[in-house]
Specification:
It comes from Parvularcula dongshanensis. The chain is an alpha+beta fold. The protein has helices at 18-28, 63-71, 104-117, 126-131, 155-164, 193-201, 265-280, 306-313, 317-334, 341-344; strands at residues 2-7, 32-43, 49-54, 77-81, 87-90, 121-123, 149-152, 169-173, 183-185, 206-210, 219-225, 228-229, 231-232, 235-236, 238-242, 257-260, 285-291, 294-299. It has three domains: 2-132 and 322-344, Rossmann fold, CATH 3.40.50.20; 135-142 and 214-315, ATP-grasp fold, B domain (D-amino Acid Aminotransferase, Chain A, domain 1, 2-Layer Sandwich); 148-211, ATP-grasp fold, A domain (Dna Ligase, domain 1), CATH 3.30.1490. The chain is globular.
Length: 347
């Protein structure tokens, strides 16, 4: 199988990223692997799509070794034909591109759509990822799984919403990731409300959500594959993120910690409810962020945590994902031209 990962940039990758773990596991399983930056695509005169790629020169035993291989001073970019790949796995985070390269992520999705039309399996489906370019996508899921939400740039509307919520709410940028720019508003922090609003709306819309008391215990990250919770040998790819420093954010970039935790009935019910839309939209791999009986977010761009849950369980979740891609390639070859990309993406 020829497997290419689309990333923000090879030099910004980290050995803790799920993308690197998946790439190393695919190499170990005998597949051809390449990493392509958002900005390195070319639409050729013959209507094929090519790209300059970072191609590992060997199989590696650790994620750090693989990263050193493709980031080394002697590493070179190799031109590959994207149209000849079996799978194009989209693993770029749009949030870091908003300021310096706001065009980059959208452009890469358009190249991915061209690749899909040429028979490449593109994960997650690029047409629907274009629709999911910010957190408004989450509002298309059933109301029962979502916290009460207001999306606006109007400070008066934000203050009215917070007042209606009893003085407690969470404010964050509509386009963002990793817990960046998240403010938890309580009656005790109300003096900072104007600053929080100004900071959030200066670069775009704010999303304001009801405060969920269970958030004090962190959130549950449940990884789904083909619209269902991913599990191997009876163990779910699921863990709790929490922060014991007093910071309300449980994201790793904000000092969050993790512990293995199986999803309870509430989490599995939420996954069941959002599953049909994940399948309908061709969202092959997703990360559900759950607090109590509500889902805070759905990460469909760069759902991570595979390496973390593997470290907690010693279970080969990455291998299970790669084997599932192998199965899709076989199905694609049997039904070539008769299945849409968003269909095969979640079969």
């Amino acid at each position: 199988m020829k497997l290419t990962f689309v990333i923000n940039d090879i030099m910004s990758e980290d050995e803790t990223y799920t993308t690197i773990r998946l790439g190393r596991r695919a190499l170990q399983m005998g597949h051809d692997v390449a990493f392509v930056s958002l900005v390195n695509f070319t639409y050729e005169p013959d209507e094929s799509v090519s790209a300059l790629a970072s191609v590992p020169r060997a199989r590696h035993e650790t994620d750090a070794e693989l990263l050193a291989d493709v980031q080394g001073d002697d590493a070179e970019l190799t031109k590959i034909c994207i149209s000849d790949q079996d799978v194009l796995f989209l693993r770029a985070d749009p949030a870091p591109e908003l300021v310096a390269r706001p065009w980059a992520h959208v452009s890469s999705l358009l190249f991915a759509q061209l690749a899909a039309k040429r028979g490449v399996i593109v994960l997650n489906d690029p047409q629907h990822l274009t629709d999911a370019s910010n957190k408004t996508y989450f509002q298309q899921y059933p109301k029962a799984i979502r916290p009460v939400t207001c999306i606006t740039r109007d400070p008066a509307e934000i203050k009215r919403f917070i007042e209606d919520q009893g003085g407690k709410a969470v404010i964050k940028p509509l386009q963002g990731s990793g817990g960046q720019g998240v403010f938890v508003i309580t009656p005790e922090t109300m003096a900072n409300l104007n600053v929080s609003i100004e900071t959030t709306v200066k670069d775009g819309y704010a999303i304001v959500q009801e405060y969920l008391p269970d958030a004090a215990d962190g959130d549950l990250r449940l990884i789904t594959l083909n619209g269902k919770p991913l599990q191997v040998d009876g163990t779910y790819a699921c863990f709790r993120r929490y922060n014991d420093t007093g910071d309300a954010r449980s994201n790793f970039s904000a000092g969050g910690k993790i512990k293995l935790e199986a999803p309870d009935e509430r989490a599995l019910r939420l996954a069941e409810i959002c599953g049909p839309k994940l399948v309908n939209d061709g969202m092959y791999l997703a990360g559900l962020d759950i607090v109590g009986d509500k889902m805070m977010e759905i990460n469909v761009d760069t759902p991570g945590g595979i390496n973390l849950v593997e470290s907690l369980t010693e279970i080969d979740f990455a291998g299970a994902i790669i084997r599932d891609m192998e199965r899709k390639v076989e199905l694609r070859d049997h039904y070539r031209g008769r299945l849409r990309n968003d269909q095969i993406a979640v079969m």
